[in-house]
Design goal:
globular; mainly alpha
Length: about 100
């Protein structure tokens, strides 16, 4: 699926955002965190360039979920709140609360 999405990028600039985000998640699941960060950053850059705020928030949510980073989850929460996307905002809040309630190592 990632390969097909990356091929679609040639024809659809907006497809970059989700294709890069999916590739980042795939790399994370393959235990390649540096590659995951590389692809997620490309997704953030593409979303910023196209001013795609919802997609930007979704990439921050994905990063925060896998990295366990409250900063990314807070960015996602803020974007979703500003956009009025209640379901996504609540999802970001839930993940943020879970992360904050976990003991720090």
């Amino acid at each position: 699926a990632c390969k097909m999405a990356l091929r679609q990028v040639k024809f659809d600039r907006a497809a970059k955002i989700s294709a890069y985000r999916m590739q980042g998640t795939w790399e994370w699941l393959r235990d390649k965190p540096k590659r995951a960060l590389y692809w997620w950053q490309r997704s953030l850059d593409a979303a910023s360039a196209l001013e795609a705020r919802y997609e930007l928030g979704f990439t921050y949510l994905e990063m925060g979920k896998f990295l366990g980073d409250c900063g990314y989850l807070e960015k996602a929460e803020s974007i979703f709140k500003d956009l009025g996307t209640k379901f996504d905002w609540m999802q970001a809040q839930k993940l943020l609360q879970q992360r904050k309630s976990q003991p720090t190592p």
